[in-house]
Amino acid sequence: MRSIAVPAGQRLEDVPAPPTAITSTRAGLGDKIVELKIVDNTRTVSNTIEYVSGLKVGQILTESLLEGARLRLQTTGLFKDVSITWEPSDRQGGVRVVIRALDKFPWVIAPIFSYQARNYGGGLAFAHNNLLGRGIKLLLYGTYTTAEKMGLAVWLDPSIRNTPFYYRIDVIGRRDSIVEYARGRLGDPRVSRVTDLDTVGVGAMLGVNIARRFHIDVRLKVYYDWVRRPECFNTTNVDFSGTPDVVAEQGGSCRAPSSTGWDNTFTTSMGWDSRSKVNGVQKGLQLSLTWQYGAKWLGDNWDYHLLTLSGVYAFRFFKEHNLILRWGGDLDFDPPFKQEVEVGSLDYTLRGSVYRQFRGDTAVRASIEYILPLFWIKGLSVRAIGFYDTNLTWFRNLPEQDRPDARLVTYGNGFRNYLPDTPSGVVRESWNNGVGAGIRMYLRGVVLPLVGFDVAYGIEAGAVRYYLAIGSVLD
Predict the structure, then answer these.
(1) What is the pTM (predicted TM-score) of this model?
(2) Residue 6 domain-assigned?
(3) Which of 168, 454, 467, 475 lies 20 to 30 Å from 113, alpha-carbon distance?
């Protein structure tokens, strides 16, 4: 049992226990749990708390058992504070375990804003983290940026009727303005082609958690993509050197990168997640393997396969210090234009590049971050971060540009048209690195969007990039 420091001049019984400690002045460790009692929960129903905790009548009481239950409850993000105590039960030969769970305010309407090189804008989000008191999540999200206009609605039940099964339904409408860049000039890339791509669709997912850490799910997505008329540019230098005139290389026309049509897929994902996350500090391992399959028999223009492997390992030091390692890879077979690997978004693929600067059908990536606390202000945690990202992305095998239509590749009922100077295979420009530092803000008491600001230096590009996210993915 954990000891409690007693200030001079005070008695042990007069000293309050820390709010998240598992303590008792009574015997009971090693006894059987014969009762469970949930208190102080005003929004989350008791049987949901009991299910998430993993505690059951008949288990043998140990400190490790209760510590695991406390971490599971705090990791949900539903509670400001969780403490677990025990006491003798009126029933003979056992103990009553008391779970005290103070709910967070469950919903928020918040502005969204993000900025990075060549993509910035904002929007509004409504997020409810605890519908019906059962941890059901609802997200209504609208954003308008220079590269993307999107409306998204997501409903997620992480535990159907307190069982290991979960499901998600999502609806999306989106316009992507996809920019493709000429080869070279990494610090100030030249635009070769800009294409607007409109998407509407729905998705449904069903999955199961096995032993709370391993999950497997299947998702059906039904999307329709309209590829609009593109705009092409001449990136040739004044002396006619450098990257080519796209229109001239393609025989006098500006060809679209891909064809319009259905994009209906089955996605199977499996993963292991043993992480805990308390007040924004992570600890543990997460692994994920995903296979996405698009098929002509589902209505697509051609068959394709997308394979993704990713992982995260978080070390926790000194209570609030985090060392986070991330790694991943993509292996795609005949992917549609919009499904290709894109590098340079507001994520961990490559800070130090412009938005979607690199693309391909194969990628290997890794990042390392160290996060340390600076100070707390009334529940607001301010942390500093240092990071290094590395990324290798390329197309494995493209046709040689030896005639105007050489890179117009047909697949089934559709096509993919690659830019004339896109390299085939791994070249030096395929590998890029970024290093930098930033600030993170995390609010403890309510479900509030994170604020993040990063400054990154692209080593190959020789350029400094700035990233700001409110309610986005810098976490």
Answers:
(1) 0.84
(2) no
(3) 168
